[in-house]
Amino acid sequence: MAVRRQQDVSAFTDLVATRSGALFRTAYLVVGDHQLAQDLLQEALVKAYAAWPRLRDPSKAEAYVRRTIVTTATSWRRRRSFHERPVESVPDERSDDVTEHLAVHDAVWSELRRLPPRQRAALVLRFYEDLSEAQTAEAMGCSIGTVKSQVSDALAKLRARAGLEPASLHPDDREVNR
Questions:
Q1: How far is the C-alpha of 27 from the C-alpha of 167, rounded, in Å?
Q2: 37 half-sphere exposure, CB direction, 13 A CA radius
Q3: pTM, entire model
Q4: What is the mean pLDDT of each run of 10 residues along the chain (178 residues)?
């Protein structure tokens, strides 16, 4: 095993200390579960640490970790066992006292979780992480055109499942479509 330089260890430690919160949020949005997100982030950081001496530009290490989160989550979802989660008890139906905001939030979150992993990752990186199309493409390891099509397909699925016409989502769009 190669001996690590002190500056490599220090740079990795700085990355973990300063960006792990944001990276955890990305992992959570990609997998939708706190424990899985913790595992996913841990695995991505281990892979980044192992690859650190080979990184050409350590300033792009966060993008490397983000890409590792997306690719690892995608491979996890392909496993049969990923979709089976044991629970202690079957949850009861929600009571009627839940506010409208929470109901809408739950519905959107449920539909987002049903998207294929690459479409979900594209939405998370583009709209939650506010990355450009080029940055999203780099994080996902694909072309900008692929990012555009993944985002477009994901939004179309969300609209269709919600029973919304695209023009009904934004007031400005309604005026244009008249």
A1: 31
A2: 15
A3: 0.53
A4: 69 91 94 91 93 82 92 79 63 60 75 88 89 92 94 90 52 38
Give the 3-state secondary structure of residue 53: helix
114 vs 170: CA distance, rounded Å: 23
Q: Around Cβ 131, how many Cβ atoms within 10 Å?
A: 21
Is the CATH number 1.10.10.10 carried by domain 100-168? yes
Q: How many CB atoms lie within 10 A of CB 89?
A: 5
Tokens of 79: 């496993």
d(C-alpha 59, C-alpha 61), whole Å: 6
The highest-level CATH class for domain 11-80 is mainly alpha
